[in-house]
Design brief:
With 407 residues, the chain is α+β, with helices and mostly antiparallel strands. Helices cover 35% and strands 16% of the residues. It contains 13 helices and twelve strands. It has a five-stranded antiparallel β-sheet.
């Protein structure tokens, strides 16, 4: 059995002991039971809120996790990285196979995760970033060695310190530059496209259509490589943090799921403090993802943030065109995973509080028109190789043509 204190850093920098989670030793069939209870002092704090507003309401109950593979509630697993960061975490602390379970990973990660939660058996230990932009070349070299499984632990110290928290499957670390914390995304030796330039250009294009995104910038990294810096949106100017919960957690999705953008809209209506704004942002992102061909629109790539005003949809992140040429969205649109006509987008509009069809038509066509006239120019500006643009051109052009609505 493992017991962990759960700490929460508020947006104003206050540190609160939110509660305690307990996870039992796995049963013979591998199932793990777990429970969570809020700390009495947290329940009495005027700024306290439910860490998962739908499944862990702010009340003095003992909440069973009911997740036998993980042994903890999904909101706590949200604090962990996915494939890339977990492999680093396991390597850094030399975690044996029998302890490579979610509760132990949380213990080893402590307060180094993205978002506002920290975990541990001892008093809270704040994390200070040690890597900066001056370390990008060294970090790039170490990430490639780690990917190729050719590095020794003594050479990975800086990478261990910078790379244990980000999620996803691609190499990335957390660095600091001029007092600002950034997520630094590196190229992979497996890349067949210039993923750094592609993501930077796609984020810029999304901003042009009205989608809220984090600040991004490209930094040179060695003689002929570069990295993408994405400003962290879970941090505040008061040295505080914003709590994050993924849409996968809020929808209770596990394994294979059959969900759509309308299900995300339902979550926003239930918990957002600014539902009209958030529904509009999600509608714009749905249109953008379909037109540009971002089929990596899975539930972990959408989350809700809790700031001083309450819950709201986070800025859009991990936006990329369909370089793998996977034709199906992860989330369905009008019950279709491969929408080929703009009518599907139009029929979804009422789910986003856009009930007047001419208004919805205007929003859809406006987004499509911005992408149609700007995407190649933006991609060229960000130095996406012409070879990559040529490969994407047919797919994006066909989508633009088929999705544009007639007046």
């Amino acid at each position: 059995m493992i017991k962990l204190n759960v700490w929460l850093t508020l947006p104003d920098g206050q540190l609160l002991q939110a509660g305690e989670l307990v996870s039992a030793t796995p049963a013979e069939n591998g199932a793990i039971t777990g429970q969570f209870r809020y700390h009495t002092s947290y329940l009495q704090h005027p700024d306290a809120f439910g860490l998962d507003p739908l499944h862990l309401p702010l009340q003095a109950d003992l909440f069973s996790a009911n997740r036998p593979k993980a042994g903890v509630h999904a909101v706590f697993e949200d604090s962990l990285p996915d494939d890339w960061g977990r492999r680093l975490l396991i390597r850094r602390f030399r975690i044996p196979r029998l302890k490579q379970r979610i509760p132990y990973l949380l213990k080893y990660q402590g307060a180094a995760g993205l978002g506002a939660l920290g975990f541990g058996t001892a008093p809270f230990q704040p994390v200070s970033l040690k890597a900066g932009t001056h370390d990008l070349q060294q970090l790039l070299d170490r990430t490639e060695e780690f990917e190729r499984d050719s590095a020794i632990d003594d050479d990975l110290t800086l990478l261990f310190e910078a790379g244990s928290s980000p999620g996803g499957a691609r190499p990335k670390v957390v660095i600091e530059d001029k007092g600002i914390s950034w997520l630094a995304k590196f190229p992979s030796f497996r890349d067949k496209f210039d993923m750094i330039a592609l993501e930077a250009a796609t984020m810029e294009l999304a901003r042009m259509t009205g989608i809220r995104t984090p600040v991004t910038k490209i930094m040179p990294c060695g003689a002929n490589k570069q990295t993408l810096l994405v400003e962290r949106f879970d941090l505040t100017q008061s040295n505080g943090r914003c709590h994050m919960v993924s849409m996968q957690t809020l929808t209770e999705a596990e394994g294979f799921y059959n969900l759509g953008y309308c299900d995300l809209a339902d979550i926003i209506r239930k918990i957002s403090s600014v539902p009209k704004q958030d529904l509009y942002q999600l509608f714009l992102q749905m249109i953008f993802n379909v037109v540009i061909g971002n089929t990596d629109d899975h539930l972990k790539n959408f989350c809700m943030l809790h700031d001083e005003q309450g819950w709201r949809l986070s800025p859009a992140f991990d936006l990329l065109p369909n370089v793998a040429m996977n034709r199906e969205q992860q989330l369905h649109i009008d019950c279709q995973f491969q929408p080929t006509r703009g009518d599907a987008l139009l029929r979804e509009a009422p789910n986003f509080a856009i009930k007047h069809p001419p208004k919805a038509r205007q929003i859809i066509n406006n987004s499509i028109n911005i992408i149609a006239r700007s995407w190649q120019q933006v991609f060229t500006k960000f130095k996406v190789p012409q070879h990559d643009i040529d490969i994407l051109n047919n797919d994006i052009s066909n989508r633009i043509t088929s999705l544009r609505l007639k007046k």
